[in-house]
Amino acid sequence: MTTNPAAGRTARARRPARFADALLAELEVLRVRLRAAAGQPDGLEVRVTAAEADLADARGQALQPNGLDRVADGFGLSDFERAVLLLAAGPELVGAVADELTAVHGDPCPTFGLALSLLPGAHWNALTPAAPLRRWRLLHPPGAESVTGARLTVDERVLHSLLGADYLEPELAVIARPVCPHPALPDSLSAAADRVTDAWRERRIPLLQGPQPPNLLCVAGVAADRTGLSLYTVSAEDLPAAAPDRDRVLRLMERESVLAGAAWAFDVDAARGEEPRAAVRAICGMDAPVALLGAADPVAGAPEPVAVRVPRLPIPERLAAVRRALAGPAPGAAGSREVETVAGVFDLSLPDLDLAARDAAHGIPLWDACRARSRGRFPGTQVITPRARWEDLVLPEAKIEQLRALVAAVRHRSRVLHEWGFADRSGRGLGTAALFTGPSGTGKTLAAEVIAGELGLDLVVVDLSQVVSKYIGETEKNLGRVFDAAEDGAAVLLFDEADTLFGKRTEVRDSHDRYANLEVGYLLQRIESFRGLALLTTNARSALDQAFLRRLRTVVTFTYPDKAAREALWRRAFPAATPTAGLDPARLATVDLPGGGIAAAALTAAYLGAETGMVDADMVATATRWELAKSGRSFGTS
């Protein structure tokens, strides 16, 4: 890089009055030459020497470099270019300079021709388009005028910088958002920040990738702060589509890297079309500290970036992050065991964790605060707030014990994996995946809702119509986003009719078979690395690929209810507030219906009874007959 962004980072405190002394003393050296050109040539060298002595004295008393020093060092200006910039700014800095310029050449603004004749060390290259003064728009371009006759006016943003005013170029402030460095980055993310700073020292572009985009920004923000820079984030889609306009905006960003000490983090995850990819190529050519966030594919024609993986926090670091967040300016009330449970279940990004801690400080239970921060981030799914409870399940006690064990596996994850050391053995298979298999209507989906409700989590049902795509590779990407979101918020992930996705791999006969097998292979790997609770339901266990069964912690078989179970289901079919008359659960249980059919018949009977205000036996019999007719049966058939 030819620019020096570190030159733009200065103390933000109010500068002493002496800050401008050296700048004005340097301008006085130029004014001596101006007055000589206006008809006062006698003793020029003596007056220049005296002015330069005053300049040296002013620099010796300055507590820090002035704005011109930072601009000249940052953009690599020659002595002549520095003098040209100062001469152009002169009328704005000292009003008398305009009169002196008018006396010399009849115009209150200098020209390049005047600078060539007046200033020492003059060289024609100073005003070429590729030279710093014009490349970074330190001076306004000459337009249609001749180069030597063009008026030299300094850009407003540059003028303010010369005087020590710090702000972001207004045109960039519309699309750029400042990122504050996180005050306490966990060790694994701090190591990623070190890799980013190393890449910048080597003048390479780091590519930050990971499952939690907010943490990518945290890492980039800390890396910028360690380098003495301020980070701004920009979406690549917000850059102008037209190449000339886009290049102009990127040059302004390069300029701000010096003037404001800025580093840039570009979100390029959505760069899929040719125009966004062209923007990525242009970004990679910037002469400034740049980081890319989330780009998964290399872009032809762009330099190879330095891959920086930003991992999920291991449980010990997550636990420490939760404790640190809760110990903020307004500490939240949470017990030690509750904190451990939350850290074991929820894997929020650092910004979301800080917000959850703030909510806890205002009286919201920590669990509920974390759950609320994870909602609304499940693409291609249906999110259900569970209402079913254990008493709604009619299952053998052995099956209930298996379901309760799944709850315990999630609730005590921190203790088992961290305190008892199981996570040290392997980084895979640390989640909980279970298969619910059995005939339709036997309670598989209801059991999933009960488990989610017992844990105080949302039930996220994967909508296959939204995640399965005909385009190669898109199904895996959609599923990856679902898994990542579920890991963040610790939602219970439900794959209903799982044999559709997790079916057996087939012999490869054509490209369709090959890519179908690739999808199954991806799911095999993802279900094993998933650290949350994933539930699969199926009516056809034999259709599942056997490799999935090995990766499942629990297989719960839901059997068709016998007469005793059906009687229990009928006794619970109507809520206590429903008025009923003449119902005999034992008699109703003689009809061969599964739990789902009984629930559907009870609801239908309730609608029939709503007309008269009472549900009676005839209405239930009618609803039951209609339910049997769905499968082509009637009373007396099985």
Quick synopsis:
By secondary structure, the protein is of the alpha/beta class. It has five domains: 5-162, no CATH class; 170-309, Rossmann fold, CATH 3.40.50; 315-373; 390-557, P-loop containing nucleotide triphosphate hydrolases (Rossmann fold); 563-629, Orthogonal Bundle (Helicase, Ruva Protein, domain 3). α13 (274-284) links the parallel β4 and β5.
Task: Walk me through this protein's architecture.
The protein is α/β, with parallel strands linked by helices and 638 residues long. It has 5 domains: 5-162, no CATH class; 170-309, 3-Layer(aba) Sandwich (Rossmann fold); 315-373; 390-557, P-loop containing nucleotide triphosphate hydrolases (Rossmann fold); 563-629, Orthogonal Bundle (Helicase, Ruva Protein, domain 3), CATH 1.10.8. The protein contains 28 helices and 14 strands. The protein has a 6-stranded mixed beta sheet, with helices on both faces. Helix 4 (79-93) packs across helix 5 (96-105), helix 10 (187-201) packs across helix 11 (213-226) and helix 22 (474-489) packs parallel to helix 23 (511-529). The radius of gyration is 35 Å and the shape is elongated.
